[in-house]
Each structure stands twice: as structure tokens, then as C-alpha cells.
Amino acid sequence: MFALIFVASVVGHFSSAEISEAAAHGVPLATILVPLAGLIALVGGVSVMLGYRARFGALLLLVFLVPVTLVMHKFWGLADPQMAMMQKIQFMKNTSLVGACLLVMYHGSGPYSLDG
Question: What DSSP element (H or E) covers 26?
Fold first, then answer.
């Protein structure tokens, strides 16, 4: 269930709207980095979902989450309070996902997995 958010969001990483939004947030080489981030999220998400090399998959998700959280969800310094609150919610959601990644990296995938 945890990995579903990453796998379900992959398609958006190949859309021009999401690439443009990332470029507007100052992401350099957004046309390359945004689809690459989508591939990292897909591989990591499927890995965790299936429990195949889940620790490595969780590490990939962490590699995806940290820069995305810090670049795309900078709630500090936003003039519009409604936009700041929305970005803070997204930032905190991603922070909790980082915590889940750390748990999977520590505990592994568990007994019901392909690595079993």
C-alpha cells in the first residue's frame, strides 16, 4: 500500500505539465530530471510493493523523495498563506514517506515478499 503512491504517480512525470511545473520551481534540466525521477519512483515502488530487494527499493524512493520534497514543496517564504499551507501539507506528507522508507530499509520487506 505504501508503494502505491509512487507507482501511481509515475505517468505524471512524463507529462509536459509536470515538467513545466518543475522547471518553474527552478529544477535544472527538468526535461531530463523529471522523467528520470519518475523511473526511480517506479523501480523503487515496484521493488517495495513486491518485496523484491525492498531495502534497495526503499533507498531509491528515499533518493527520489528528498530532493523532490526540498525543491518542489518549499513552503517557507511563500507570500500566499493558502499556497504556503498546501505546500507545508505536501512537505509533511513527504516527510512521513521518508520515515516509511527508513523503516523498510531497516526492517526489510517481511515474510510475505519475493525475498521472503
Answer: none
Which pTM value belongs to this model? 0.92
Phi first, then psi: what are they for 89, rounded to 5°?
A: -60, -45
Whether the Cβ atoms of residue 51 and residue 113 lie closer than 8 Å to each other: yes
Furthest-apart CA atoms within the chain: distance in Å: 50
Cα 16 to Cα 20, 21, 60, 72, 91, distances in angstroms: 6, 8, 24, 16, 23
Sign of CA dihedral 2, 102, 69, 90: positive
What separation, in Å, do the N-terminal and C-terminal C-alpha atoms of the chain show? 18
**What's the half-sphere exposure (Cβ side, CA atoms, 13 Å) at 107?**
12
- pLDDT tens digit sequence for 28-83: 999 999 999 999 999 999 999 999 999 999 999 999 999 999 999 999 989 999 99
